[in-house]
Amino acid sequence: MDIKIYLKEKRELVDAFLKKYFGSPVLPAILSDPMAYSIFAGGKRIRPVLALASYEACGGTADEIVPFASALELIHTYSLIHDDLPAMDNDDLRRGKPTSHKVFGEGMAILAGDALLTEAFYFLSSHSHHASGIRSSAVLKIIREVAMAAGAHGMVAGQAEDIQAEGAVQNSENLSFIHTHKTGALITVSVRMGAILANAEKRRIASLTRYGENIGLAFQIIDDILDIRGDSAELGKPAGSDERKKKLTYPGLYGIDPSMRKAEELVQGALDALGDFSHKAGPLREIARYILQRTN
Amino acid sequence: MDIKIYLKEKRELVDAFLKKYFGSPVLPAILSDPMAYSIFAGGKRIRPVLALASYEACGGTADEIVPFASALELIHTYSLIHDDLPAMDNDDLRRGKPTSHKVFGEGMAILAGDALLTEAFYFLSSHSHHASGIRSSAVLKIIREVAMAAGAHGMVAGQAEDIQAEGAVQNSENLSFIHTHKTGALITVSVRMGAILANAEKRRIASLTRYGENIGLAFQIIDDILDIRGDSAELGKPAGSDERKKKLTYPGLYGIDPSMRKAEELVQGALDALGDFSHKAGPLREIARYILQRTN
Lengths: 296, 296
Prior knowledge:
The structure is a homodimer. The first copy, chain A, has helices at residues 3-23, 29-39, 46-57, 66-83, 100-104, 106-125, 136-150, 155-165, 172-197, 202-229, 232-235, 241-244, 250-254, 256-273, 282-291; strands at residues 93-94, 97-98. In chain A, strands 1-2 form a two-stranded antiparallel ribbon. Chain A contains 15 helices and 2 strands. In chain A, β1 (93-94) and β2 (97-98) form a beta hairpin. By secondary structure, the first copy, chain A, is an all-alpha fold. The two termini of chain A are 22 Å apart. Chains A and B meet through α2, α6, α7 and α8 of A and α2, α6, α7 and α8 of B.
């Protein structure tokens, strides 16, 4: 199997759903324009694809949970819009395009983020999606887990620690908190979403959780290495920005080579976690390996 | 019955729940401090109290749905924090206290708002609250409706229109859009929440929706009148700020006396909507009347 083709197919499933939603006049244009601008700014849909691949690994058919998976992309996109704000990371470019506040102004960028976050819970709770025997109790469990992963127990706490840590003494405890919360929690819940919606056994959900935690951290480490070594054109933003902002990062604290080894170990841990799964977990395995080969 | 005593009792129910939650170490301190600062900055808990009163009007016991009702206050508080930001209304004072970004900085204020919004959906989806036979399908319906009322279909759209309309030509269509979206939607869904969780008949939910729409608009009109005529000390913010910011308001567009008459008509419409309800809707009736007597 070619993982690039798999990623493309699944990304297209998510994109088709999002295009249909943002292309219909259900939302007032004043907000749907800035929401759509960031949603269609070239995201790789990694979190939704992980949810779909995990659902497949547990015996489901990806099409059935596209609206749920797409909610993860709304949350990820909102977090990028808010992270880029002048009061946070103050970034003018994201994936090679002007950031939301550069195009729509700060006030509208804040509101577009707020709207995307809220819309994610609308996607997750909409009855029309609940075909294929997905139970209301499983949906409620997912909503609760996504809220924990995205909010003050997870991603927002990581971002708070991140902006407070900038320029402060670098410390492995802070770094671990930032990684597990800022990026790890949402990636892990993406993988769990697929398993929970597929009504997988507890043991399998636990294995997939371990997979998610491992690839979440590996993904972040590679991200930070790419920020140092990467090509600005390919990254879509200036390389070296973490160092200029004195961001607490893995390679900054431990060096590039030890960080790369750590990422490799984590990917191996993710593969080990899938030991009991059939060939249906093939895409999850390939995604884990692919993380080490990313160039953008 | 003394409505002030009723409002105080119900406010205390909500406050006790919120104090217990924010007093326990479930959230990282980096965020729970700014979240709690705004949550306990003197809010009147009108939206939660409306949900509780509506639940009682449909035969329920208020204690059973306090976590759901409290979620509405998290959403209302997040919206105030973001509205006060320099990129929005740029307000330094709220209820007589420095606003979140004055105390914690802009970045942390944005994150505290994001966290409160997300936490609201955690409150709504938490199994531990689902005692008293409230069904998962009713909870999912509530989550969907709250997301619609709070997000790009509702409150956030109203705020977007509001910041774009500042200083622009005043127009009754814009004004109506702003009112129904920015404040009306969340107040209406608060009233609907009580009825839906009580498993009320469709006809009753429709009546309560009409009640909510009427008092929502009456509440906003009185708010705008108080901004013109009010006492700064009692309001906790400088009176006349809407006019200075060239905000589109009801009294600004139609004058104070016609606006007051409109508010009275709306309150009467709200009372009419409750025509079929028993004495259990007494608090809802008194709340509607009380809106016309507010001084802060």
